[in-house]
Structures are given as C-alpha cells and as structure tokens.
Amino acid sequence: MAPRMDLNGTAFGAKIAKRFYNVSLAIEQSTLAKATQDLVMLRASQINGCGFCVDYHFKDAVAAGETTVRLNLVSAWRESTVFTDAERAALALAEEGTRLADAHPGVSDETWDQVREHYDDEQITALVYVIAMINAANRLGVIVRTQGGTYEHGMFASLSN
Q: What are this entry's molecular-function GO terms (predicted)?
C-alpha cells in the first residue's frame, strides 16, 4: 500500500510533530530504563500493525545496544526466557493498555500489581505515558500508511528544542 500523505509535510504538521517528539523525549529522559521503553514501544507497534514504528523502535533499540534475539522475541515474550520479571510486567501492561478496543477488559489488577512490584511512581508514570504515546504514534502511522523500512536512527533529532 502506498503512503497516503506525509503528516510532517506542512508547517502545521511539522509544528505538531515537534511537540509530539518533545513529549517522547521527556519520557525517554525519565528513570524508566530505555531498554524497557524500547521493548514496550516495539510490542505496541507490533500489535497495532504500524510498520514504520516497528522499524523505528527496532532500529533505535539495536543502536542502544539491545540484542536482536530479545527484539525478535518481543512478539512471543510470554514464551521466551530472555526477559526479566520487570520487563514482563511492562510488556503485559503495554499489551493490555494497547488492546483496549479489542473488547479487552483493560489493565488487570494482576498486571498492575506486577508493575507496582517492579517500578516506582516516576517509572510507572513514564511507562503509562510511553504506552499512550506509542499508541497515538501507531494510529497516526497506520491512518496515513507510513511505510516501514526507511527509518534511520536519529533522523528526528532535529525536532527537539
């Protein structure tokens, strides 16, 4: 499928993209481990079918030192041995927070308790925001059919303040 449009191709779109990027940058600078953020963003992007975001977050994770073994197993994290209990809690929260429209009952108390066990309030705040932001980014990409395969690590750095 061909892309429908470049959301950043107008002055208005670029203005919004810069603000969106800066929210993501604030989350990235939180105390939540970057590796956890990358895993969560990759998993939500897989669920939502956003090729551009899968490409983006896979490549950024590799550039940050993540192994391809772990990244390749994100979609099967429950059946994998390469994730910590804390990462599993974050991935469960990402899945439950992403599947809200799939007649999913939302985030279970069990998942929330697991998250509380492994993360402090600042990290949980960052985790909730990263899940919300990646779901928004996925929707933008899917609506306009932004294609995966063209992302280059760091290509949005010029959007930061």
A: peroxiredoxin activity
